[in-house]
Amino acid sequence: MAMASSRYICSRCFPCPRNRNTNLYRRLDFNSGSASVFAVSRGFSSLSLALRSPGPPRSICQSRSQSRSSNRSQHNRNVTSPRATATSSSSSSYSTQSSQSVSSSSSSSSSSPSPRSSGPPQSRTPSFDREVAQLATLPLHPLTLSDLVRFGKPPLSPDLLLASASFTLRVLPIRIARRILSLRNLPYIVVSNPHISQIYNNYLHSLRLLLSFPKENFPSSLKEEARFNDVLSEIVDTHSNTIPSLARGFSECKRYVAPDVTTDFLEEHLRARIGTRLLAEQHLALHDASLTSDGHTLPGVQATDPKASLSTYIGTIDTHLNPTSIVKYCADFVGDICDMKYGVRPTVIVDGMTDAKVAYVPSHLEYILTELLKNAFRATIEKGNVDKPIIVTIASAGMERYDDGSDSDSDDEGSSSPTKMLENGESSGMQQDDWFSGVRPGTEVQGDGLKSDILGIYGSSGTGDSSGADTIRAEAARAVTIRIRDRGGGIAPEHLPLIFKYSFTTFNNSTTVGGNGGYGANDAGGLDVISTAMNEVESSTIAGLGFGMGLSRSYAQFFGGDLKVESLFGWGTDVYLGLRGLDVDR
Amino acid sequence: MSKAVAFSLSRLTRPSSLAPAYSRSPLLLLRLVSKRSISTHQPWRPSSALEEHVAREARPISLRQLTFFGRNLTLERLLDSANYVRTELPTRLAHRIRDMQRLPYVVVTNPNISKVYETYYESFEQLRKTSEIKSSEENDKFCQLIKKMLNNNLSVIPDLAIGVLECRDFVPAAELDNFLKTMLKSRISRRTIAEQHVALTETFNSPFFYPHSEGNGVDHTNGVDFVGEVFLKCNAREVVEKCGKLCQDLSRQANGPDTPVPEIIIEGHPEATFPYIPSHLEYIIGELLRNSIQATIERHGSDPKTKLPPINVLICQTQQFVIFRISDQGGGIPQDIFPHIWSFSKGPRRQKQLQNISLVPTMSATLQELFHTSAGEVIDKNGKRRRGTSLAPLSHRPPNLRLGLGLPLSRVYAEYWAGSLKLHSLASYGVDTILQINKLGNNLERLVERRNLDGI
Fold first, then answer.
1. Domain co-membership, B196 together with B283
2. Mean pLDDT for chain B?
3. Where is the composition biased (Low complexity) (chain A) (predicted)?
4. From its phi and psi, is residue A440 left (phi > 0), alpha (psi between -120 and 50) or beta?
5. Chain A residue with minimum CA distance to B267
6. Best of B327, B424, B426 to disrupt the A interface by mutation (most A CBs within 10 Å)?
7. Rounded to an integer, what is the distance from CA A458 to the centroid of its chain?
8. CA-CA distance, A272 to A276, in Å (whole number)?
9. Cβ-nearest to A400 among B335, B340, B424
10. A360, B169, B219, B312: most buried, per Cβ within 10 A?
11. N- to C-terminal Cα distance for chain A?
């Protein structure tokens, strides 16, 4: 009931007085992958028209989120590190996940307008459709690590925190709108599936929440920022456990959809999801790290704050991430599970440049390494080579920027050409644009203004934290390669082409493929207990779905890295994980 | 000359529209010929002959087929082989000539490319005019012709490499690379069948001296390791050891006898055997090991007391493949170069490499030519097996002269017999190269990229 009424109000707040047919045009235009200037400019005008509408729902959203704010701040009070934020948010919702469905916002009260857990897709209003289509045509900013750390080390000054919130509020709706559009373009029978339908409705709901905020000068105070933060955290929670639903839905629809369609959609969706979540979690983490425990006052920005001087984190990013320690942490974890399941554990030797440091998202690296080590451990044990150590070699190199005019086109042989960095967005072919310009329809002046605002803060505000920001902004990229070399017998040649596919699209669940190690084989009965036992980013949610390698590669590629596998069949496997991090020391 | 080339090219690139006109109108033909005779010293070449050969399809051959002629060698089979080579060479040459004709004018007028074009056309004309070989004497004459061509064409690789580098601003790099790859692959194929035939002829002509008679070579039908150029039982460990030793010697020769040389450790299934053309495999392994050794020394210093990290070579075999994985700790490949390691024309160091290549007059792309040998001294213990064919060290280059051709050329060799070559760089740590060789020898040669085939 509550949901229905909120939907009604929300749709009313974006009146769409005209041009219903141009909506169709724009959607087609988006589907073709090219955001034409025409469509964008039309989108600007009509959207800005929508922005000017008065906001009765604002008050509703306000009250709703205020009721929830206490909930969230309580939740965050104990959080000390951003990594813990990511994990605890997913674990909390995991533990509260009810049996019938992954309901949105488990932390929210019953008054929350959570979407129905099943049933046909929510009916939509034309105006909302228009808005979605318009948002989706806007250029998507590809997320880079340097963008994420651009606001500098927390605690942030109020201005910077507001800038971060404002930026998140600008970019997030575009990404969500694209997800919605992408889901909408799936066959009807797929989206009608209760699982997929629920995910679809989650996205619609999240977008409505975000669009209920004023478009101009918001948030302008810390109070408003807190309100936004609460909504954001609810959105993050809503979507934190959707991958099993997604997988279940698609596997139920396997008969109706070509495997390629499924694979393509999932790949794009999961990749986009990484960015969307990172963006939201980054702001949440910055918020938490910038506010004192009472949730309302900012600490002074003096360097005396012990939290500031000790922590190497900027939001979800560890600026002094030591890959060796993550490898050891993950190896210990996987080893424990092996002990439990097999009674033995292979040893892991870490060599190479073991003291390398890089700025990266630790949760991503943890997910990838757990997945890779899980495969290596399992293969080694099943091959009977427990006495042969798994050798993890870490290499790290600063990357000089080089300018060779003729090199701008990508080279297919280069495993990680810089252009890849641009492709972490959703669909290629969209115009890659500058951070702020063009993000907001019809408000280019404001966009520029904000840009200079932020530069101004860096340059002259004298808040004391500019030192951190400056060194980070002047950063160079750092390439880290982690080679995991096992003696687990390699991957059978016939399985090799499938290892990055989502297994339920390639393997029939009833037939167990494999015996040749964990790679690409049906994971049922393998070390999947690891995934369920581990409360890391995604792993709690994708046990046994065979998502591991594909998702790991998506994570690695997200910031311009890559994941490559060399199988020496009969001997072992080499996995090369290349990461592009930031070089903060320089 | 450029005018002449321009003229002949503009004619040749539109053969379908113009060639019939020539035959119909003798007057026009006459005028063209007379015009040419004024402006050029190039011979007149009727395009119809080329057209005819371009229209023919190459007949790829497998390693097994290559050995077929040689088992139970009889005069009949020898002549079969001769006539296969006689018809196949001009066909394959014609395809490459047509490839060159399709290149932009600016490229083919480059002196180096133009030189190759002329060389190819000349060889084509000579070969197509050879009539069917019906006797041993005719075959001997034919072999002389082939040998001469093999020697004359040794400058083709440097010429092409320089030409392509000089033209890198005019044509997209991918296009140039693709062109050069096809040219080289085709060149390997032509040399393979030609040398195979020469080797068979020599075997046939000296029945009382079989080149490797020291072991089991007296019997020509059973237990023979070599059939012509093909070594039936390439042993993975032996190849690596041999190449490793050569490269270590090479390194000492270049850096001084006291400099430490990294040890080469072989592990895995080293006794894998498979039929292959040793010179091809040795070239690849040699280039890879040479890179690894040089990188390791440069990275870890040449102090005699230093213990250099070893180079690990893993050999592993599956039903179909033999895989060589060479891991070094030579510091990896710099980020700016890495994207271009497989390219012949692209990358930041090309100007320097261009100068280096111009120091190399001829290149047969074999391991042996890396050595300065004095007075034909044979370092290769298998040297006598080569029986003076063109794969013997006919040309030399200083060992540490960097050409930027080793990796892409190795990949061409690997892909030629349906193998593959991959490289993973661990930046500022080391490099893993993975060479996959097709073990069964029943794969056909890979002559051209698909898209070139479509163009024919």
1. no
2. 76
3. 58-126
4. beta
5. A571
6. B426
7. 27
8. 6
9. B335
10. A360
11. 56
Report the chain A residue with the minimal C-alpha distance to residue B342: A413
Answer yes or no: do B400 and B267 share one domain.
yes
- Kindly list the residues from chain B whose CB atom is less than 8 angstroms away from the CB atom of residue A404: 336, 348
pTM over 0.80: no
Residues B246 and B201 in one domain: no
Which amino acid, A341? K
Cβ-based contacts of B425 with chain A (< 8 Å):
481
Question: Can you give the residue ranges of every domain in chain A?
Answer: 126-302, 317-398+474-508+536-580
CATH number, position B296: 3.30.565.10
Q: Does B434 sit within 8 Å of A566, measured CB to CB?
A: yes
HEC letters along chain B: CHHHHHHHHHHHCCHHHHHHHHHHCHHHHHHHHHHHHHHCCCCCCCHHHHHHHHHCCCCCCEHHHHHHCCCCCCHHHHHHHHHHHHHHHHHHHHHHHHHHHHCCHHHHCCHHHHHHHHHHHHHHHHHHHCCCCCCHHHHHHHHHHHHHHHHHHHHHHHHHHHHHHHCCCCCCHHHHHHHHHHHHHHHHHHHHHHHHHHHHHHHHHCCCCCCCCCCCCCCCCCCCCEECCEEEEEEHHHHHHHHHHHHHHHHHHHHCCCCCCCCEEEEECCCCEEEECHHHHHHHHHHHHHHHHHHHHHHHCCCCCCCCCCEEEEEEECCCEEEEEEEECCCCCCCCCHHHCCCCCCCCCHHHHHHHHHCCCCCCCCCHHHCCCCCCCCCCCCHHHHCCCCCCCCCCCCCCCCCCCHHHHHHHHHHHCCCEEEEEEECCCEEEEEEEEECCCCCECCCCCHHHHHHC
Task: Test B320 with A406 for CB contact under 8 angstroms.
Answer: no
Q: Using CB atoms, which residue from A406, A417, A483 is nearest to B426?
A: A483
Give the pLDDT confidence score for residue B359 in this predicted structure.
67
Residues B123 and B198 placed together within one structural domain of the fold:
yes
Q: How far is A395 from chain B (nearest CA, A)?
A: 5
User: What is the per-residue pLDDT across B46-84, written as a single tens digit (0 to 9) for each?
Assistant: 688 898 899 888 888 888 887 777 777 788 888 988 999
Main-chain dihedrals φ then ψ at residue A326, nearest 5 degrees: -70, -40
In a domain, B131, yes or no: yes
Between CA A296 and CA A411 the distance in angstroms is 51
Domain range A126-302, CATH architecture:
Up-down Bundle (1.20)
Do B158 and B259 lie in one domain? The reply is no
pLDDT at B392: 30
Q: What is the DSSP letter of A358?
A: E
Interface confidence: ipTM more than 0.95? no
Is B189 part of any domain? yes
Q: Count structural domains, chain B.
A: 2
* Domain membership of residue B358 as a residue range: 230-448
CATH class of the domain at A317-398+474-508+536-580: alpha beta
Q: What is the pLDDT of residues B333-363, one digit of tens each?
A: 888 888 888 988 877 777 777 777 766 656 6
